[in-house]
Amino acid sequence: MKILLILLFINGVCGFQLNMKFLNLKKLDKNINNELEKYELNTQNSIKSCGSCIFNNTCNSKKFENNEIQEDNIENYNNKTIEKQNKKKFYRFASKPRLEYPNNKGQLTWYPIGFSRDYNNKPKQVTIRDTRYIVWKDKLNYYGIRDCCSHQGSSFILGDTNKNTISCPYHGYIFDGSNGELLEIPKLPHIYSHNHNINCFKVVERGDVVYLNTIPIMNEKMKSEIDESCIFIEPEYFDPGQRVVYLNEDFENYAKLVSVNSLDICHIGFVHSFGNNKNPNPQHISKIEKIEDVDNHYKIIYKYIAGENSLVNKIYKYNIINVENEYVLPHSTVARVKFGNLTSTIITHALPISKFKTKLFVKAYRNYWSYDLNNSSNYNILYPFMYLINNIGDIITENTMFATLKEDKSIVDNIDKTDYVSMHGNFSIIYDIFSNHYKKNTH
Fold first, then answer.
1. Per residue in 331-371, pLDDT tens?
2. Burial letters for 306-335: b for 16+ Cβ neighbours within 10 Å, e otherwise?
3. If you ran DSSP here, which 8-state letter would residue 188 be given?
4. Looking at 230, 260, 294, which one is the last position of a domain?
5. In Å, how far from its chain's centre is CA 41?
6. Rounded to an integer, what distance in angstroms lies between the CA atom of residue 102 and that of residue 90?
């Protein structure tokens, strides 16, 4: 009996405690609801007093004092807010390419995939950010599709091309390279279906460099919207007095760091044999200038003391040189060295193959040891001599540039890959301003 009374007592106490907790929860819920109602009321009042201050209870802007709000002021404020939000947003065009701000013309998804001399009617495999493409050309046009047959996923690298078409080497299916449509299944009729098609991409040649835009082409209208005129072509390309040699180099690091190295002025004195390690820093640095020829093109100018072992100093006896550095998003750079009336210009285009693998395409220009052999006035007794000078100059330039790339590679390939912060360092100096400007805009 005693045990029964004890159990009833315990049950009554627990029940009382549960009821009290339930009442407390109801009271807490009521308080929360009251607070939410107050918050909503305050928010509504703040919106009435200032149409753009949605997340603030008060507005400190002088534009909205005394509730005298002008519609144009609200519109300007909202536009600036949207612009700030767009700038803060991280655009993953690499993983999901699309046409939207700031890539509405496709200007940030053009990638260099080689020189014009590298392409013909034989399929060539290209990898951009771990995605494989197949590219070929006929007499007039380039064609690019995903290197993955829609039937069983086979690569087209061993396939045959015929003008704008390519066949799969696995089962002989034939696809149209201009729109990705399946044209023929051998000895088997088929009904058209979107599932048969392969993603197709725009491929163009600009300034002897071939580019592929990674946005899939859905129709002819979209193809026309992807604008190749926004691709940067260096002015040296149009100058008949400039000779050029073409090189490429593989780097074991990601494309942004490879391009940052090209924009770094202070590494020259320590990494390169022609650099000046006694005076590695520029004597003068200009402000960063925006160039209006294409989008996202910027420039800076340095005054620099030439190295004792440099061609500029040893052969041409120039001590002070001007260096013009430029970049164009996403991964193109210019390093133009001027001494007197002579120039040496290095153009680089970085192709991100994967996170830590980059192919750098390089064009090395010079207007010394250079003759325009297409100029009829040069067809004289000295023509063989000029031809010889051009070729000797090409050999020297190519060997010098090859050694320069290997020197850069020895440093860039060994930059830490385990930690993003360490890859970019913990501090900057004044001469890092241009490379930092590039990093920020690339992001």
1. 999 999 999 999 999 999 999 999 999 999 999 999 999 98
2. bbeebbbbeeeebeebbbbbbbbbbbbbbb
3. B
4. 230
5. 47
6. 11
